[in-house]
From TrEMBL:
<protein>
    <submittedName>
        <fullName>D-2-hydroxyacid dehydrogenase</fullName>
    </submittedName>
</protein>
<dbReference type="Pfam" id="PF02826">
    <property type="entry name" value="2-Hacid_dh_C"/>
</dbReference>
<feature type="domain" description="D-isomer specific 2-hydroxyacid dehydrogenase NAD-binding">
    <location>
        <begin position="107"/>
        <end position="284"/>
    </location>
</feature>
<keyword id="KW-0560">Oxidoreductase</keyword>
<dbReference type="InterPro" id="IPR036291">
    <property type="entry name" value="NAD(P)-bd_dom_sf"/>
</dbReference>
<dbReference type="InterPro" id="IPR006140">
    <property type="entry name" value="D-isomer_DH_NAD-bd"/>
</dbReference>
<keyword id="KW-0520">NAD</keyword>
<feature type="domain" description="D-isomer specific 2-hydroxyacid dehydrogenase catalytic">
    <location>
        <begin position="20"/>
        <end position="308"/>
    </location>
</feature>
<dbReference type="InterPro" id="IPR050418">
    <property type="entry name" value="D-iso_2-hydroxyacid_DH_PdxB"/>
</dbReference>
<dbReference type="InterPro" id="IPR029753">
    <property type="entry name" value="D-isomer_DH_CS"/>
</dbReference>
<comment type="similarity">
    <text>Belongs to the D-isomer specific 2-hydroxyacid dehydrogenase family.</text>
</comment>
<dbReference type="Pfam" id="PF00389">
    <property type="entry name" value="2-Hacid_dh"/>
</dbReference>
<dbReference type="InterPro" id="IPR006139">
    <property type="entry name" value="D-isomer_2_OHA_DH_cat_dom"/>
</dbReference>
């Protein structure tokens, strides 16, 4: 069978792809694929491997012999899965490959915000400590996390692992029921927000969770509360967040995703210098161990498909 990987470089160029190369397929790897190149590159493919390149129904409809689409990620919003079901095309994704890396990243954002690490490090670099008449600097706020109340939104594998780390720090953990859902033993997000010292988002982006954290909910939060998002940027109303940070409505935010990625250079959150706003470039999943695990899992799924359809 003929297989194409449309955006190999999106996984990094430091990985081994031998798991795919050892399969009984004729594999062509493209470092990246622009929208206008997709149709030509997949026209003879029986198998498409893809990370973020968009595969619409109109595009897929032209590939009559296509049998399998392997998404090298958890999210599948770039593939028209409804069309694939209708056309009998198998679609797989990879889930759980980056749990440890993502929760480590979420914890890193939380610890950096709680300790005001970035502005404090900048003070040291610019000589404030050397010029201080005292043995330490006390200019930046520091939050002791032990005893603080963490509210988690999204209690799958990631949310549960993050809760474990938070409890190890002595935090009190609550799991919120998302708006529009009722789960026994869980209070609603709106009921928990005024009590939360930290809110961490680990849920999927959907019509129900789009702009889940909006101006109204930001206003309900404590002025010292910290917001962590290692899920999807669209969960947060970004203009409302910027206004809340500037107005002192919340204590800080750590984000690993924005609504549009890559973001435009003039994105408001990228062009404001706030000591309590940390943004990383959707990199929570990028530990080499996680990415190599993703490749291994995706190759295993394709191997199973090939064996089952032989």
């Amino acid at each position: 069978m003929r297989a194409v990987l449309l955006d190999g470089d999106s996984l990094g160029n430091d990985l081994s792809l031998n798991e795919f190369k050892h399969l009984p397929v004729e594999l062509t790897i493209y470092p990246a694929t622009q929208p206008h190149q997709v149709a030509q590159r997949i026209q003879d493919a029986d198998i498409i491997l893809v990370n973020k390149v968009v595969l619409s129904a109109d595009t897929l409809r032209q590939v009559k012999q296509l049998k399998y689409v392997g998404v090298l990620a958890t999210g599948m919003n770039n593939v028209d899965t409804a069309y694939c079901r209708q056309a009998g095309i198998t679609v797989t994704n990879v889930d759980g490959y980056g749990t440890d890396a993502v929760v480590q990243h979420a914890l890193m954002l939380l610890l950096n915000l709680a300790t005001s690490f970035v502005p404090t490090h900048q003070q040291v670099q610019q000589g404030d400590w050397s010029r201080s008449p005292f043995f330490c600097l006390l200019d930046q706020p520091v939050m002791e996390l032990a005893g603080k109340h963490l509210v988690i939104v999204g209690y799958g594998t990631l949310g549960k692992r993050f809760a474990t780390l938070a409890r190890a720090l002595g935090m009190q953990v609550s799991v919120a029921a998302r708006p529009g859902t009722e789960v026994k033993g869980r209070e609603s997000l709106d009921a928990l927000l005024p009590q939360a010292d930290v809110i961490s988002l680990h849920c999927q982006l959907s019509a129900e969770t789009d702009k889940l954290i909006n101006a109204e909910r930001l206003a309900a939060m404590r002025p010292t509360a910290l917001l962590i998002n290692t899920a999807r940027g669209g969960l947060i109303d970004e203009p409302a967040l910027l206004a809340a940070l500037k107005g002192g409505q919340i204590g800080g935010a750590g984000l690993d995703s924005l609504t549009v990625e890559p973001p435009p250079a003039n994105h408001p959150l990228l062009n404001v210098k706030l000591p309590n706003l940390l943004i990383t470039p959707h990199s929570a999943w990028t530990a080499k161990e996680s990415r190599q695990r993703l490749v291994k899992m995706a190759a295993g799924q394709l191997e199973t498909f090939l064996r089952d359809t032989a």
